[in-house]
Amino acid sequence: MLRVLRAPAASTEPLYDSAARLGPRALLRSVAAHRELVGLLARREVTARYRRALLGMAWTVITPVAYAAALWAVFSQVAPFVTPGLPYIVYVLAGVVVLNFVMHAVIATAGEIASSAVAIRPAYVPVGVFVAAHALAAMATLAITTLVLLAVQIATDTGIPVSALGLPFAFALLAIAAAGAGAFVGALAVLFTDALEMTRVALSLAALLTPVFYPLSIVPDRFAFVIELNPIHQYLLLVRDLAYGGGWPDPGNVAICVVIAAAAAVAGVLALARVRRMIPSLV
Predict the structure, then answer these.
(1) Using CA atoms, how far apart are residues 246 and 85, in angstroms rounded to an integer?
(2) Which of 169, 156, 140 has the alpha carbon at shortest distance from 47?
(3) Backbone angles phi, psi at 9, to 5 degrees
(4) What's the rounded Cα separation, in Å, for the pair 117 and 144?
(5) pLDDT for 17 beyond 70
(6) I need a surface site. Which of 146, 182, 186, 202 has the fewest CB within 10 A?
(7) Angle at CA of residue 164, ends 181 and 182, nearest 5°
(8) Closest-CA residue to 218 (of 100, 78, 121, 75)
(9) Considering the entire predicted model, what is its pTM?
(10) 205 in helix, strand or coil?
(11) Per-residue confidence at 271, pLDDT binned at 50, 70, 90?
């Protein structure tokens, strides 16, 4: 007796074509098409990070505030730095907020890309989704810590100027730059696993070259250009001007931040496109 076998019904689920060309437009389209997944992954990252922690998501506030408090205790009491017209705790907390965001966003994004390339599983989700999810999760943490910064400004009578309304623009540029840098490092880490460790070292050095806890005025003129060349410093300068500067930032500084964000995004997309042709598992 012959049995007739029916072909399985065609799946209606959209499949991601890893052979398609990866460019800025294609990357944005893929992220837009998977926007619900981006939100889900971002929410999972934020909640899973502190799932078994006793204080839960309160650590997103405790960690930067404790670090800033330690710097304040040392550099305003033991070896005092002077920030005329501004409480030192506000100055240092703004630096910690920006620095923590950059270091977490770059490493987390790069690590996700590197792990996706070696995962032994069929992949149907474009890597841009993971980049966007990590950037969104980092932005959520940044938003919380920024609220703490603004609260400290109120508590110390620094106030919140109208220019603080421009902070979302500054943070958007910062997120694009960090995501692009993370994508670029992740692409390198697919080929050279020590790229992640090298990036951690580079970020640590960049942190020392960023006026987080020391005022720029103490840096000798002959070394000031080194600080100016630090991209993190440019974004920190923009955030500080908007958060408590009382005036709109220097147009030159804004232009530099836009250029850095655009260059990082292009570099990240091109690096992913090149690596994806070499590593089939990276979609």
Answers:
(1) 12
(2) 140
(3) -65, 145
(4) 32
(5) no
(6) 202
(7) 10
(8) 75
(9) 0.77
(10) helix
(11) confident
